[in-house]
Amino acid sequence: MKKFVRKIIIAFLLLVAFLLANYAINSYFIRHQEIRVDRTVLLMGGSHIKSGLNPKYIDNSQNIALPGETYFDTYYKLKYLVSNSSNHISKVLFGFGYNNICGLNDDKYVEEAMSIEYLERIYPIISYDILNTVGVNKIGYLKTIIGKMCLYPSLVHDGFIGEGFHGRSPNLKKSDAAKRVKHHYYKEDEIREESRRDIRYLDSIISFASRHDIEVVAVNIPQRKEYYSAVPQSLKQKYSEVRSSLIEKNIRIIDLLEMELDSSSFANHDHLSSEGAKIVSEIVSDSLAHWESIKITN
């Protein structure tokens, strides 16, 4: 019996040593990795930007948006990328829609079912201490660290960058506007409040970019009227206040929310198809070029 217990203890200690060794190796790789972006213009934000702005039509741009990305995420992504002197970022286009300041964003690191998806992206760039200040699911965080840091060595930890632009097929007929609005703006039939955290981090993005001579441009991607007209009025009011504050700070806004597009331009009521992304990306590109020409003239 003693021999059996001894074997169990030895096996347990070996397992712990294995997990800790992998954790140490991956921590070393994370500390020394330098993630590079290939372009000077970054397209950042959630799925609306990921599927809505095609870098093919926007000069010298790279789409690093991720589904569900919040301003909290964007701030730390930008801060991390700027810390690498090999990156020369001159401009950031970020999503600026109702969903970007919605309280749903606050749940993404708190509710275990959602938290792992988001933690698996940002664990290399946002520490537990920082996450804990805004709320994080401890079980989700532990599962993430074990899965990503302790089971095997990985040379690169770059899930926070994403895989670039993701074109979608037109599929509006299968989309239910009411269900999408309820998912984004309601919780147990109660209207969600705004995300005070993300409104603060939007200010942080702007301040950080200003200190590093990076121009920021807010982009509101077109959505179907059935969707945006059903957004709760309380959130629209808060959005209007935030929008006014951006204007006061001389932040350029490309607001295409109510732009009328053919149904083939939409993948669902709040996301563009590849065809819609081409149209919108060309408009955004023209707007940027026009602003640049004004700078040169002045």
State the name of the first-level CATH class of the domain at 38-103 and 160-297: Alpha Beta
Order of helical and strand elements: HEHEHEHHHHHEEHEHHEEEH
Overall body shape? globular
CATH superfamily placement of the domain at 38-103 and 160-297: SGNH hydrolase
Please mark out the parts with pLDDT under 50 across 5 or more consecutive residues, or reply none: none
What does this molecule look like?
This protein has about 300 residues and is an alpha/beta fold. The chain has a domain at about 40-105 and about 160-295: SGNH hydrolase (Rossmann fold, 3-Layer(aba) Sandwich). It is built from twelve helices and nine strands. It has helices at about 1-30, 45-50, 70-80, 105, 110-120, 130-135, 140-150, 175-185, 195-210, 225-230, 235-250, 275-295, and strands spanning about 40-45, 60-65, 90-95, 185, 190, 215-220, 250-255, 265-270, 270. A five-stranded parallel sheet has the order 2-1-3-6-7. It has a two-stranded antiparallel ribbon with strand order 4-5. The protein has a two-stranded antiparallel ribbon with strand order 8-9. A hairpin with a 2-residue loop joins strand 8 (about 265-270) and strand 9. The longest helix is centred in the first third of the chain and has 31 residues, at about 1-30. The chain is globular. The termini are far apart.
Features of the shown structure:
298 residues; single chain; 10% strand; two-stranded antiparallel sheet; alpha/beta; globular; 12 helices; Rossmann fold; 9 strands
Summarize the structure.
This protein is α/β, with parallel strands linked by helices and 298 residues long. It has a domain at 38-103 and 160-297: Rossmann fold. It has helices spanning 2-32, 47-50, 71-82, 104-107, 112-122, 128-134, 138-150, 177-185, 196-211, 225-228, 233-248, 274-297, and strands at 41-44, 61-63, 91-95, 186-187, 190-191, 215-220, 252-255, 266-268, 271-272.
